[in-house]
Amino acid sequence: MSVSSTPRVAVHAPSTWRDPASHFEVALTDPWYRMLLQLTDLMQRSTVQFWAGRGVRAAYLPVTTGSISSPMGLGSDSTPVKIELEGVPTYLADSMQFLLEYGCRMHEAGTYYVMPSFRGEAPDPTHLCQFYHSEAEVAGGLDDVMATVEDYVRHLARDFLDEMEDVIAEVAGGTDHLRRVLELRGPFPRITFADAVAELGDGPDVVQQSAPGIRSLTRAAERQLMDRFGEFVWVTHFDHLSVPFYQAFEPGDPSVARAGDLLFGIGETVGAGERHATAERVREALAMHEVDEQDYAWYTRMRELRPMQTSGFGLGVERFFLWLLRHDDIRDMQMLQRVNGRQINP
């Protein structure tokens, strides 16, 4: 059993998100937020160690962008946060994945970061307006990045078990869930979106359809898949119109994307995908998704200058913590509260 520096007092989420104005005073002394600081510290150290062992380099990137990775268009799964900076319209980053792709062309082994992401939706038990992404881009295709994600998740689980077993056991009621992922042999279970629909049915409790060809699984469907295949399961090969344009086409079938979501904890916790290797494929995808090509001219030009096959992923840090602590409300995972449209100090 590991030795922890966290005080041995009852640790429960105080749900201070219900009153953001008083949050920082409560958080100063509440053991829940002391524990969160310990979690984030270990998350950072473990992530750095993982990528250093693979020769992947950290990238310090801006938080503003003119080329958001989830544009308002077909396949968008979020609302971008638009601001005006010194008179220039811009966006707060929903992800800087595009710049990780740029970094891959400087260092072929790959690039990564842990940095904030901004979304325009209201918070709820599974979504935050501002959250942390652990993202990376590496050379290779979908199978390569999925294997990398599995290695990363196991690496994190091992470090949290080694350093914080007592704390996690107290909050989560045990650490068997960490041991289970470490005991998994070989790749995590996988199922294609089409096979998942065939197995679960295509009723509204399973499939959400915003338009023809734009389908996604409900939270209830994700839970059914985790119950059937074990908590860790990949869902792959979505309808291309249901994912952002930058995901690669399945060879021979451009209606399907070479992308996958890793379900565990509350459901989708990691999103991964293979990217288009050439400018021609990017232009085809932009047209298919009805996104203005001019907004991504630099992105296509990068492929003209340096065609390269890469793939990448983003792990939601707070969603990973939900799994780690067996918790059910992501709003309890913020050290400092942030809600769109409201000024909150500090």
What does this molecule look like?
It is a single chain. This protein is of the alpha+beta class. It has one domain: BirA Bifunctional Protein, domain 2. Helix content is 36%, strand content 22%. It has ten helices and 15 strands. The strands form four sheets. An eight-stranded mixed beta sheet has the order 1-5-6-15-14-13-10-7. Strands 2-4-3 form a three-stranded antiparallel beta sheet, with no helix packed on it. Strands 8-9 form a two-stranded antiparallel ribbon. The longest helix has 31 residues, at 142-172. The model is unreliable at 1-7 (pLDDT under 50).
Give the CA-based shape: globular
At CATH level 2, the architecture is 2-Layer Sandwich
H/I helix tally: 10
Q: What is the helix content? A: 25-40%
**What name does the CATH topology carry?**
BirA Bifunctional Protein, domain 2
- Main structural class: alpha+beta
Main CATH class: Alpha Beta
Q: What's the SSE pattern?
A: HHEEEEHEEHHEHEEHEEEEEHHEH
Strand content: 15-25%
> Whole-Å distance between the termini?
37 Å
Number of domains: 1
> How large is the radius of gyration?
20 Å
Q: Can you count the beta strands?
A: 15
Average predicted local confidence, pLDDT? 94
